[in-house]
Amino acid sequence: PAVLDKSGGQKPVLTQPALKGHPKFSKKFHDGGKARDKAIHQANLRLFCRICGNSFKTDEHNRRYPVHGPVDAKTQVLLRKKEKRVTSWPDLIARVFRIDVKADVDAIHPTEFCHNCWTIMHRKFSSAPCEVYFPRNATMEWHPHTPSCDICHTVRRGLKRKRHQPNVQLSKKLKTVLDQARQARQRKRRAHARISSKEVMKKITNCSKIHLGTNLLAVDFPAHFVKSISCQICEHILADPVETSCKHVFCRICILRCLKVMGSYCPSCRYPCFPTDLESPVKSFLSILNSLAVKCPAKECNEEVSLEKYNHHVPSHQESKKTFVLINKGGKPRQHLLSLTRKVQKHRLRELKMQVKAFADKEEGGDVKSVCLTLFLLALRARNEHRQANELEAIMQGRGSDLQPAVCLAIRVNTFLSCSQYHKMYRTVKAITGRQIFQPLHALRNAEKILLPGYHPFEWQPPLKNVSSNTDIGIIDGLSGLSSSVDDYPVDTIAKRFRYDAALVSALKDMEEDILEGMRSQDLDDYLNGPFTVVVKESCDGMGDVSEKHGSGPAVPEKAVRFSFTIMKITIAHGSQNVKVFEEAKPNSELCCKPLCLMLADESDHETLTAILSPLIAEREAMKSSELKLEMEGIPRTFKFIFRGTGYDEKLVREVEGLEASGSVY
Q1: Measured between alpha carbons, how far is 121 from 113 in angstroms, rounded to an integer?
Q2: Domain limits for position 514
Q3: Distance of alpha carbon 98 from its chain centroid, rounded?
Q4: Rounded to an integer, what distance in angstroms lies between the CA atom of residue 665 and that of residue 654?
């Protein structure tokens, strides 16, 4: 518009409005562009697998699974079958692929994974042989969006190809020929790689001097059987065999050397594998392996020995120390450390102990304990066993840990706490500390069921006379079946007892390991004949004054009597002699004295004792003429009982036999 000049002249002056910048160069436009790029990047991420980084377009059925959330129904059934406690995808991915997806950000990481990774997780927990190739270092690393983002570039390139692809189709016949040629090349390449990798692994193991070749087998077995008993790395006969999680078997030294050099995957199927995953094969396979006959490699010896006895035979040759090496110390598959005695554990770990001690002296001022605990903690963390690791860390920091139900039960019994008193203590500790250190009462009751008689099934042949065949029976009332008075004598007391046969079965099951160890020491591992003869000592004595110092209980006698038994000796009739498999070393110890009946009565009250103990005596008399059938180590065993009443003191004997009190001529 024309505006008059201020100087007073009539000359109009043209004024132009200020120029506005193009919206493309404004800050608001740039911010919006960045947000749009991030949104596009986040959309592109949905096309890729979180674990391996492959595109979902390669799968014809477009099967995908969420990274977060509970596992699907099929996986849940498999995990429940294998008794695994994992219920969510993040825990399962961390366990199989060692990837922590709990801290993922949607703008950086994809939220789904492909069916191939799902299959690998299933193969990890199923017993089927693994055929999926997935090396340890194949997991994808994801980074925030940048102008030169590989993911967005890949998607754009795929779109361009799709837009500009020529509309020319090869004939079906030509396609088939090309596919066959490509598959043939791939097979040839894989076979060549397999042969070269086997040669490399044989060079790594270098065990030809310490392992026996399959040419030393005494029998010409089928090729498939020879392959099953030979190491898949060195192709020698398996020595100290171990099994991977994908069910392939190797010599221990061979697989450990390969894992150290080649990487953490199975040499046969390239499934992820770590030294901590190695386990001993099943016992039936080991027994077949140890029973194989092999020729002695010595020139002058034509003897054939079993693989189990090979190491006993080799030292008989003078040049054995120079030429032949023992295939395995002891001739048997190496046992797990925890199953060995303390002396053998010390011997096997001697070198490691010296190394740890040297490190502790140099770095930690001689504190070996803290070094060992830290190593154990790191091992637990490496296997994602965080619950045990947290408990161990709490112990190391002096914060304590949760107590087991059996320990809480022992605390409650030894401190004479009633159920209500223990429950009050449990709630108080939980409220103050915020942690459940003590276990609730229902957990204690479940632990108590296993420890008390009436938990293990058994059978009598012939059945006991006037005794129920029911085996699920625990604490019973000692006065059950009695009238309120016996021969006009009032029975005013409290008594609790176990059934005699159920208490004997519980005691025998507690001693199961000692009995089997005694049989092994007498070379009677496979003994299945004749019954075990069990000598039982019965004891009955007064417990003195047990009157309550406070409280108002029922009016009962202030003295108590306990009837108990001790298993003194167990023998087996082997041939013409009795072989002893167990004998109580400390027969007077309260640890081996099993309580059977506890009553509030005076030991000199003959009538009350007779009334309460008469059912026990009837059960004992019935057991004398019958045999007990009880399962031990999965094998039904037979037991006969001999009862000795040598645990009564002089006063009780006199009362029972109607003699005069002590001090008289006996």
Answers
A1: 11
A2: 458-657
A3: 20
A4: 12
